[in-house]
Design goal:
Layout lengths: L5 E2 L3 E9 L3 E8 L4 E8 L1 H4 L2 H15 L9 E10 L5 E10 L4 E2 H8 L4 H20 L12 E3 L5 E3 L4 H7 L9 H4 L6 H4 L6 H17 L9 H10 L14 H10 L11 H13 L7 H6 L45 H26 L14 E3 L8 H10 L3 E7 L9 E5 L5 E3 L3 E7 L4 E3 L8 H10 L3 E8 L9 E5 L5 E3 L3 E7 L2 E3 L8 H10 L3 E6 L11 E4 L6 E3 L3 E6 L17 H5 L26
Parallel strand pairs: 11-14, 16-19, 21-24
Antiparallel strand pairs: 1-2, 2-3, 3-4, 4-6, 5-6, 7-8, 8-9, 10-13, 12-14, 15-18, 17-19, 20-23, 22-24
Helix pairs in contact: 2-5, 4-8, 4-11, 8-10, 10-11
């Protein structure tokens, strides 16, 4: 049997877990830590590009800094040198990740759809929790899709492939390549489709596409070719989800349409805002966002299926029940017959972009006063942005509205500003802005730090619950010896209890093994030996040796458990001790008729010069120590 392939001198590569357009994923064993991991190996044809390798390593290192329960952790990265059939050598990058048992959301949709609305929203909220953390750490995923979301048997949500998607986005891959990028066209944001720079709001658009699919059974846009789908993301409006699944309530329609706004300024500005409206939709409370969704879809002719009612006006009842299965062929929503129209789509895209450029130039000319149009003689009214620091969000929005300004709220963790209060504004206080301008209000979402709780003496499950309750997660789990902590309970944490760490940090646990190492106590006074063993949680018993010894009286001669042995706590160690009285010899009485000699029961007539030795009898300490 061939020896297993070993990466980095420690990862034994096992069976194949899955293949993608870019990589293979294998289960592996970390021989150093004794745990199972997943190893992703990049395809050899992509690995030949040195610039891609550099981006791959850089992004993998960035992803390795993400520690959150909703993100598949990246443990390590490296490269393995392989020899090609022609004799050439190539560096094949690999990434070691957390091994997660479960199945992807893509597999779940194939077998379990339809899902209950509450389950759809719960899955999406789990994804948004991971994105909120990654965005706060400066990492944009760029490839949110059902295949990159794992669901564990316990129902935990894990977002995968951080970093790799970033590296692919930075590479020369395009929509025309037959690679993994093509498969993600259904979840591309409009700015990604236009080739513009993306930010965290692009992930929120992709999450909106994912939510649309798990609610209705299909993505918001489909087409014959990736470029056709990309064109729809840029220029077409999706139908409300309730048009495909009538049981979806208006509030959920609003949340989805808000996330799918073409203009990123009109989407949710953070994953936390998106998740908050999801919870409000489930609980039947008025939504805080989704104000732009109504405006965005107002251009479409109102119908019974597409009319959107502002969610703040009428709170909705919490959604219940499972969604009906919707297929592409179910009337009255039958898709158009498949035909090859993507070459025309390319032409249309080029025309739209060209016309848009001309229109923009004309507008700029008119704005500069060179278009011959009528000029106004008065400047627009301006107001001063007020100082809203430490005001509540509601007060800040009221003040801005009173001044004729609109507000966009974003959230950020802050250790100095109370939860729900304003940190800062953009533009800054004192700036002169035109009436009707938008002011971005940065609101504190609370402290970003957490205090590590004292979980010593708790079981691993109890410790995990206590850490999760304060926004922390469990990191590496190791075992250690302790005479005072029962087997399976926590001895210590790293960082230590009461330490202040960023929320989302992983805390390593040391769990009691229930064993201790027996020391060598031979040659020590009995009292010292007994104390040393009992301090380790061991029991002792001692007896005096019957074998002649030169050891000092009262010292340990032997122990029945070998030194350096690992034994269970409370194991009995038997000690033998040199007697307090050494053996002595005394001459017998002379063979005379003296009364003393004849009266001694131990004396007997012997031949002249014979002796009887008297030896002390050893006894145990009788205390059963």
């Amino acid at each position: 049997m061939p020896a297993p392939r070993v990466l980095g001198g420690r990862y034994e590569v096992g069976s194949l877990l899955g293949r993608g357009g870019m990589a293979e994923v294998h289960v592996a064993r970390d021989t150093r830590l004794g745990r199972m991991v997943a190893v992703k190996l990049l395809r050899s044809d992509l690995a030949r590009d040195p610039s891609f390798q550099a981006r791959f390593r850089r992004e993998a290192q960035a992803a390795a800094g993400l520690n959150h329960p909703s993100i598949v952790a990246v443990y390590d990265t490296g490269a393995d040198t392989t020899v090609e059939p022609g004799g050439g050598r190539v560096e094949l990058p690999w990434i070691v990740m957390e091994y997660v048992e479960g199945r992807t959301l893509r597999d779940m949709l194939r077998t379990d759809h339809p899902l209950a609305i509450e389950e759809c929203l719960s899955i999406t909220e789990g994804i948004l929790n991971g994105l909120e953390y990654s965005h706060r750490m400066g990492i944009v995923h760029r490839d949110i899709k059902p295949a990159n979301v794992m669901i564990t048997p316990a129902g935990e949500i894990k977002v995968m492939d951080f970093g790799i998607a970033r590296a692919v986005s930075d590479s020369s891959a395009t929509l025309t390549q037959t690679s993994a990028v093509m498969g993600t066209a259904q979840y591309l944001s409009p700015e990604q489709a236009r080739g513009e720079q993306v930010d965290s709001r692009s992930d929120l658009y992709s999450t909106g596409c994912l939510l649309y699919e798990i609610l209705t059974g299909r993505p918001p846009f489909t087409g014959d070719a990736p470029v056709a789908v990309a064109y729809q993301h840029v220029s077409e409006q999706p139908r409300p989800p309730s048009a495909l699944a009538p049981q979806i309530p208006p509030a959920v329609d609003h949340v989805v349409l808000m996330a799918l706004s073409k203009d990123r300024e009109h989407r949710y500005q953070s994953a936390a805002d998106f998740a908050d409206d999801l919870r409000r939709a489930v609980e039947g409370r008025p939504l805080r966002g989704a104000s732009f969704a109504t405006q965005t879809f107002a251009a479409a002719p109102p119908t019974a299926a597409t009319t959107v009612t502002p969610p703040v006006a009428v709170p909705v009842s919490p959604p219940t029940g499972a969604l009906p299965r919707v297929s592409d062929g179910d009337p009255p929503y039958e898709e158009e017959p498949t035909r090859r129209r993507w070459p025309w789509v390319l032409l249309i895209v080029a025309l739209v972009l060209g016309i848009g450029g001309v229109g923009t130039a004309l507008l700029n000319n008119n704005d500069d006063g060179s278009g011959g149009g009528e000029q106004t003689s008065s400047a627009p009214a301006t107001v001063e942005v007020p100082d809203l620091a430490n005001s509540s969000q509601a007060d800040a929005e009221q003040q801005l509205t009173a001044l004729g300004l609109t507000s966009t709220v974003t959230q950020q963790a802050d250790d100095t500003v109370a939860d729900g209060n304003v940190i800062s504004t953009n533009p800054e206080p004192g700036a002169q802005v035109t009436v009707g301008s938008k002011v971005t209000v940065l609101v504190s979402s609370g402290s970003n730090s957490a205090v590590v709780p004292d979980v010593s003496g708790k079981t691993q499950e109890e410790a995990r619950a206590a850490l999760t309750a304060v926004g922390l997660s469990v990191g590496d789990v190791t075992t250690g010896d302790s005479p005072t902590v029962d087997k399976g309970e926590v001895i210590s944490t790293d960082p230590a209890a009461q330490a202040s760490v960023p929320k989302g940090s992983a805390v390593a646990l040391t769990i009691a093994s229930g064993k201790v190492t027996v020391p060598d106590v031979t040659g020590k006074p009995l009292a010292d030996a007994v104390k040393q063993l009992r301090d380790l949680g061991l029991s002792t018993n001692s007896t005096e040796t019957t074998v002649p010894t030169d050891a000092d009286p009262g010292t340990v001669v032997t122990q029945d458990v070998s030194p350096d042995s690992s034994v269970d706590v409370r194991t009995l160690v038997n000690l033998t001790v040199a007697p307090d009285r050494t053996a002595t010899e005394s001459p017998t009485s002379s063979p005379t008729d003296s009364p003393t000699a004849s009266a001694s029961p131990s004396s007997s007539p012997t031949s002249s010069g014979s002796q009887t030795g008297a030896v002390g009898t050893p006894t145990g300490d009788g205390n059963g120590q």
